[in-house]
Amino acid sequence: MNKLLDFDAYFDDYLTLWMEKNASRFRNADEMEEAAPEAYEEWLSTPAPWLNGKCPGCAFDDCTDGAQLVQLLREYVDSDISVPDPLLERIADLKDEAAVMALLTDKAAPCEARMMAIDLLIQMESTAPMVDYLRWQVERTEDDDLLDKSIEALDEMGECVKGPALIAFRAADRKGKDYLLDVLCNYPGDEEVFQYTLSRFKDSESERALFAGYLAKLGDDRALEALLDVAESDDVKYIDFIEIRSAIERLGSEAPVRDFSNDPTYKAVKRLQVNPYKGRMQ
C-alpha cells in the first residue's frame, strides 16, 4: 500500500449507499443506526475497487512484517487519518512484540500511537512491557493518559504482576502508590498496602469512595472501624456513602441507616428515578 487510505471515509460512503438500499427494513433512524455494525461487517468482506479488488478486512493480510505495519500505524497517526481496524488486527495477529514495544517506548512517538501500542500488547496478552509500566508509575514522567492506560494493562496481566508491583509500590511517591493500588487491591494480604489504603481513606475526604472500594477488595475487616466512623459522620456525602456502605457490607458488617434527603446528589438521583428521561433530549 503506497499511500494512506482513509478506510473510515470509504466506509462512510458505503454506509450511505447501504442505508439507502436497506431503508425499507427499518421503522426509524434509531433502528437503522443499530444496524450499522451489520453494514460494517458486510463492508469488511466486500471486494473494494479502491483496494484493487481486495476486501477491506484482509487489506493487510499479505504483509508479514510487524515492524512495517507498526510504522504504517504511526504514519496514519502522524497524518491525522484514522488507523484502520484491519491494520490493528493484523498487527495483533502477528504478535511481533518487539515491533510494538519499540513504538510503546519511543518517547518521540505521538501519545495516541503509544496508547494503541498498549492496546495491541493487551490483545497479545504480552507481559513484555510490565517493567516499563511499573517504572512509569514510579517516575511519573509520562503522559497521564499513558499512566492510566498502563494500569489497565497491568491489571490484565494477572497475578504475575503482584511481586513486581509491590516493589514499585514501595519505591513510588503518593500518587504512584495510589495508582498502583488499583492493581494491588486485587491481591490482598500485604500489610503495607492495607495500612496505606486505610490511611488514605482516613485522610482523603474528597476520595473516600475510591479508597473505600479498595478496602473492600482488600477484604481486611480491620478497616470496619474507620468505615463505620465515616458512614456515621455528619459530613459524609451521599455519593461517598454508597461506596462506603458497600465496603462495610462486603467486610461482613451492617452500615447505619442514614437520611440524605437534603443531599443535592441524593435529590438528583431520586428525581431521575421518578423520571428517567428527565434531562435527555426530547
Topology summary:
Elements (H helix, E strand, L loop, with lengths): L6 H16 L6 H6 L1 H9 L21 H13 L6 H10 L2 H8 L6 H13 L6 H10 L4 H13 L5 H10 L2 H11 L6 H13 L4 H11 L5 H9 L5 H13 L13 H11 L8
Q: Would you give an account of this structure?
A:
With 282 residues, the protein is mainly alpha-helical. The protein has a domain at 188-282. Helix content is 62%, strand content 0%. The chain has helices spanning 7-22, 29-34, 36-44, 66-78, 85-94, 97-104, 111-123, 130-139, 144-156, 162-171, 174-184, 191-203, 208-218, 224-232, 238-250, 264-274. Helix 5 (85-94) packs across helix 7 (111-123), helix 8 (130-139) crosses helix 9 (144-156) and helix 9 packs parallel to helix 11 (174-184). Residues 278-282 have low confidence and may be disordered.
- As residue ranges, the low-confidence spans are 278-282
Structural class: mainly alpha
The largest sheet is: none
Computed over alpha carbons, the radius of gyration is 25 Å
What is the global morphology? Answer: flat
Number of helical elements = 16
Proportion of β residues?
under 5%
Series of secondary-structure elements, N-terminal to C-terminal: HHHHHHHHHHHHHHHH
Mean pLDDT: 92
User: Roughly how many Å apart are the termini?
Assistant: 46 Å
- Helix fraction bin: 55-70%
Number of strands: 0
Keywords:
62% helix; 282 residues; disordered C terminus; mainly alpha; 16 helices
In short:
The chain is mostly helical.
